[in-house]
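Anyone else keep sequences and structure tokens together like this?

Example one:
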Amino acid sequence: MWIRLGFVITITMISIMQPRLVAAAEVYPTQELFSTSTTVVGEPIAYPATGPAKVTTQIVTIAPGAETVPHHHPAPMVAYILDGEVTVDYGPKGKRVFRRGDAFVEAMAVSHKGVNTGTVPVRILAISMGAEGTANAVADR
């Protein structure tokens, strides 16, 4: 009986001491912006394998009436619109309008350009999830 009780206590202690995987919402308040395995134009997300992982965070600002050059992203880039509104032209994939509070994974292989048709600067939090030796954006001139 003592051996069996010792076994039960041991198993109980092991299960109590094991770390438990939990969702972030169980640890601190969260608001999910999105969850996806594809870009905004439906491409599967693929990470570069050119070197060690590298995350780069930038704030992109586009003045009223200004536009970006046509470009693409060799690595996944999450965009979150902090202020303003931007219209992104994806060529044959169409145009999309993103406003303050919108979040998405930007197109990777599809060339695109953003245009600020509003009256205030557009500010975009851009988080690139690339690798050493991989550019965050490449101009398609």
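And example two:
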Amino acid sequence: MVLVVGAFFLFTDGVRSDLSARDQELCGIVLDEDESIGYLSTQIDELIDNNGNFSSEGDAYAFVEVPVRRSERELSSRIANYDEPDSAGYIDDPELLNDAKALRDVLFDLQLAADGGGPVDSSTLDATREALDDVVDTCTS
């Protein structure tokens, strides 16, 4: 089911109903393969299947620029940064906030690993997959 609230779409299928509307919106982005974090999840699965190898340096660049950086920006826009006065933070659930911070942290390592064209080592891929799974679990259970 999709609810339209103002200009926002809330994807409620499978998302915890006790989460705030803002947190449900983030969870929708996590679960939707057409959104930054959901798309990143599919790309991580492909990289795992390919043992961390990209087909070309251009593919590695595109991977860093599109799903990794977009996901990092999405998370950073929702996590308060006390060094920046305009950064209010928009994640209400403490567990979701912790999982989002952990995912953002591993995205930095993933970006460094992929920046040179790969391959991305299995420990970085596993850490990213685990962080993604933790956010999904928090959103859905």
